[in-house]
Every structure is written in C-alpha cells, then in structure tokens.
Amino acid sequence: MLQKDTLLQFTVPLTIQNNLAGENSSSCCVGKHLDQKFWTCGPFMPSLSGSPRPQFAKNQYVVQAQAGNYTELKMYAYAYPKAHYTWSKDDGMDLSNITNQDDFADGTTLSFPEMSVPYFGNYTLKMQNGNGTYFAHYQIVPRGKPEAPSNLRFSDVTFDSVKLQWTSGFDMGSRQQFIVLILYRDMYIQLSNWIYDNSTNYGINQNFTYVLNKLDSQRRYNLTIVSQNAMGFYSPLTKSSVAITTKQNPDDEKSSKADLKLILGLTFGILATLGLAALMVYILKYRNFKTSSEYNQNISLGTKL
Q1: What is the H or E stretch that residue 258 is in?
Q2: Whole-model pTM?
Q3: Low-confidence ranges of the chain (pLDDT < 50)
Q4: Full set of structural domains in the chain with CATH
Q5: What's the confidence (pLDDT) of residue 100?
Q6: How far apart (Å, rounded) are the C-alpha atoms in residues 81 and 233?
C-alpha cells in the first residue's frame, strides 16, 4: 500500500502526434490506483528530435526559368537538430562560382543570379543531421523565348536569290522556327515562309541553310533572321543583319542591248531620211535657180536684138 506523498519514479513510452521535430510540447502524465481513484503528476516539456524531411506543401521541385533571369531552388524542411545542406548538379557541374547558397532556420536556398543555358537540368539536395539523411530532387526547366540566331552570313547572290546560312540557339524547350525579314524604312517585312527546326538537341548550335528566292534584280536588301517559339520572339531590331545587292537580270541586259540597237537603228534611219530629204530640196532649189537664170539670160538677149 503506497503512503500519501510517496515519490514514484517510472518510465513509460509516450507518443505525441502532430508535432514537428525540434518543437517542444507541454504534456502531462495521468495515472490511477486500482481502486479507480485518479492522481496526476506535474506537466513536463519533452524535446523532440528527428531526421530531416521536407515540408512538402511549401516546396516546388520543378522550377521554370528563363535564361538571363534570377532563379532559385528552395527547400523548407523539418529537422532537429538542424540539418546540414549540400546542393549538387546531377551531371557533376561545379556550382561554386555560379550559385549562392543561403541556409536559414528551417531550410536552404540555392540561387542563380543570372540563369544560363548550361544551368538547366537536374539537381539533388542532401539534408543530413545526427538522426538521418534525406535526398530531395529538383529540376530546372527552360521557359521563355528562344535564343537569337547567330553567325548570319550569305553567298551565291544572283539577280533574284541569295543563299543564307546561320547558327541557331537554344529553343528554351519549345520547338522553334525561323523567318527571314527585310528592313524597309522603319519596319520589317516577311520575305520567307517559316523554316522549322527539327533538331533533337533543342536547336543548340545547329547550322541552317536557306535559299531566299523571288528577289528583285539590282536591289539592295537588309536581311535578318528571327527565331520564334510558343513564348514569342525578341524584336528583330536586336538581331544582326546582312546587306546584299542582287545582280542584273540577264534577260534585262539582253533586252537593254536590243533596245539600244533599235534606238541606234532608228536614229540612223531618221538621220539618213533627213539627209536625203535635204539633198532633194537642195537639188530642186538648184534646178529652179538654173532655170530662172537661163530664162533671164534669154530675155536679156532678146532685148538687145
């Protein structure tokens, strides 16, 4: 039989639900005698610990990013004691010079001050403390307008066509297509049909050749190439251009020569006609003058007789 005010010490298993690692919970132990009379002991504050695990509702594991923009991967986690965080890219890329890591009270952030094409891909976060290890997997996928074509050049200029060649850029994960534009005054005018990129590596460093036809002869053109995907395209004013001048149409040259011959022939014909007419006029005037002189001479002789 226990006496009143007897101090008891014992250990019992205790399960606390809906509590997070690292948080304290105010709990109370309740007991009873065999005679069904209840008694209680004072409250206590257990300190909970656990291995790292994500706060799934707060995390985003697939992140869309645009080249040139700020991008970040973030983990909100439960861990007690506090976890050690290690980020890595699955292809082994060194992240030390291109990213910043910021660990805070309940998580970590990996930030990219300026996103670039090589940074797209898969990443792994290792979270570890004395109670265990957890691996989280992330993916950065491209989103945005395609990179501008580069190394635009031309060859084989004729009177009505030119061969254009260029190197395409990253299509940002959305299939791209190209178009040839001409700068006319303050606006661009479409000269070609759409040229589709059917490469299997997102258009990166692919070489394209296109023959632009139906040009006017002996005309100067300022040409540029624009790439477009589902997100749109950048202003062609930011793109490089090439200036060409088409050659003379051989048919126009033949026609010009024929026209020149015709003009010269007509000119000579007119001159010859005018010359003949002038000669005839001269002859007629000479005859009239001679006849008049003879008549006057005869009259003078008759007078003398």
Answers
A1: helix 250-304
A2: 0.56
A3: 2, 10, 16-18, 33, 301, 304-305
A4: 51-142 (2.60.40.10), 150-250 (2.60.40.10)
A5: 97
A6: 49
Partner residues linked to 242 by β-bridges:
223
55, two tokens: 């706060």
CA atoms within 13 A on the CB side of 242: 19
Asked whether 149 and 227 are in contact (CB, 8 A), the reply is yes
- Please, how many CA atoms are within 13 Å of residue 91, restricted to the half-sphere of its CB? 7
d(CA 115, CA 94): 15
Q: Which two tokens stand for residue 301?
A: 């002789």
Q: Could you read off the pLDDT of 119-171 as tens digits, one per residue?
A: 999 999 999 999 999 999 999 998 888 988 999 999 999 999 999 999 999 89
Query: What strands lie across the sheet with 162-167, from one edge to the other?
Result: 150-155, 162-167, 207-212
Sign, CA dihedral 188-189-190-191, equals negative
From the list 202, 225, 228, the residue with the least C-alpha distance to 118 is 202
